[in-house]
Design goal:
8 strands; 165 residues; 32% helix; alpha+beta; 8-stranded antiparallel β-sheet; 2 helices
């Protein structure tokens, strides 16, 4: 009887060890991928930025930050399989739509080129809907394509989206 208990205990421990090994492998890989995603994202945002958190969405991670100086929020999408950045979306505290238009397309072009001196194939459009106007700028930079939303009254860049190559 004692021998049966011992054999059963050894088999149970063996099975438990196998199950723990099977589940620990994917868990460790996920933690390593998350740490890698955070490190990759931090390399693309300003240094003084605050890390807010990370979400795992199927095959990519969404890493969130906030810049305390500008109050801009950064959402960085990192592809889990490759560890490369897919997109960065930067949202400011201002709205891009305004009933007042003080900025011309030439002013907007100057603002875009000041922020992105390497911008190529720059296209600026003005869109008015329900009496509110906004400027949108699209162009290609060194590492990504960019879409900006700018306030027509102030010229402030209110939203940026970088899609990496």
């Amino acid at each position: 009887m004692n021998l049966k208990k011992t054999i059963f205990s050894v088999i149970a421990l063996f099975m438990l060890a196998i199950c723990a090994t099977c589940f620990a492998g994917p868990l460790q890989a996920t933690l390593a991928q998350k740490e890698q995603a955070i490190a990759v994202a931090k390399a693309e945002v300003p240094a003084n930025i605050n890390y807010l958190g990370i979400k795992n969405d199927e095959d990519e991670f969404e890493v969130s930050f906030q810049d305390p100086a500008t109050l801009e929020y950064y959402e960085v999408e990192v592809i889990a399989a490759t560890g490369k950045i897919k997109t960065i979306e930067i949202k400011g505290a201002n709205t891009a739509k305004s009933a007042t238009v003080n900025q011309t397309e030439a002013d907007i072009k100057a603002i875009v080129l000041a922020a992105y001196p390497d911008a190529q194939n720059l296209v600026i459009t003005q869109d008015t809907e329900n009496g509110l106007t906004e400027y949108e700028a699209k162009f290609t930079a060194t590492k990504f394509t960019v879409k900006l939303e700018l306030n027509p009254a102030t010229g402030a860049i209110c939203k940026r989206e970088h899609k990496y190559f």
